[in-house]
Amino acid sequence: MKFLGRIDETQVPSVIAALHTAAAGHRAFELEIAALGAFPSPIRPRVLWAGVAEGGGSLAALAVAIDDALARLGFPRETRPFAGHVTLARVREPRRAPALAEALATAASRRFGRVSIEHVALMRSDVSPRGALYAVLSAVPLLP
C-alpha cells in the first residue's frame, strides 16, 4: 500500500508502531478482485495488476491512514491518488506487447474472487538476479 524504499533497521520499530496507529479503528474487510491491467500502459507494460471491484473504499481509507501515520515519521506523502490493485508481475525489459494488451482488454470485466484483508504487513524486499524475495517483518491485525 506504500513503498518506503530503503530504510535504516533502527526505523523499523517506529514504522511498526505507525502501522499500529494506522490500523487502529479499521475493521477487517473483503476485497473482490476483478479486471486485469498494466502500468504504465497495456501496450508497453512494466507492471501487470488485478484491480479491486468491491472493498476499494475500505482499502483506500486504510492507505490514507498509513500514509498519515508514516508522514509523521518523516516519510514523504503519496503524491498520486491511491489506486487499489494487486501486483501480479513486474516486467524486466518492457517492450511493445500488442498480444498482451489484447488479452488484458478481454479480461477487463472479469471477476476473479474475493480475499479477506485481516492485517497490514511491513514487508522487506531483497532484489536478486531471480527477482525480488519478500519477507514479512511484522503483521498488524485489523479489528475483527
Question: Can you describe this structure?
Answer:
This protein starts with 11 loop residues before the first helix and ends with a strand. The chain has one domain: Cyclic phosphodiesterase (Cyclic Phosphodiesterase, Chain: A, Alpha-Beta Complex), CATH 3.90.1140.10. It is α+β, with helices and mostly antiparallel strands and 144 residues long. It has a four-stranded antiparallel β-sheet. Strands 5-6 form a two-stranded antiparallel sheet. The protein has helices at 12-23, 56-71, 98-106; strands spanning 29-39, 47-54, 85-90, 111-117, 119-128, 131-141. Strand 5 and strand 6 (131-141) form a beta hairpin. Helix content is 26%, strand content 37%. It is globular, with a radius of gyration of 17 Å.
How do the strands and helices of this protein lay out in sequence?
Elements: H1 12-23, E1 29-39, E2 47-54, H2 56-71, E3 85-90, H3 98-106, E4 111-117, E5 119-128, E6 131-141
Antiparallel strand pairs: 1-2, 1-4, 2-3, 5-6
Helix pairs in contact: 1-2
Proportion in β-strands: 35-45%
Mean pLDDT: 93
What's the structural domain tally? 1
> How many runs of DSSP E, i.e. beta strands?
6
CATH architecture: Alpha-Beta Complex
Structural class: alpha+beta
CATH topology: Cyclic Phosphodiesterase, Chain: A
Query: What's the helix-strand series?
Result: HEEHEHEEE
Main beta-sheet strand count, sense and barrel state:
4 strands, antiparallel
Cα shape = globular
* Estimated helix fraction: 25-40%
Q: With helices defined by DSSP (H or I, 4 residues minimum), what is the helix count?
A: 3
Q: Uncertain regions: pLDDT < 50 for 5+ in a row?
A: none
Reading off the top of the CATH hierarchy, the class is best stated as Alpha Beta
Under CATH, the homologous superfamily reads Cyclic phosphodiesterase
Termini distance?
Answer: 20 Å
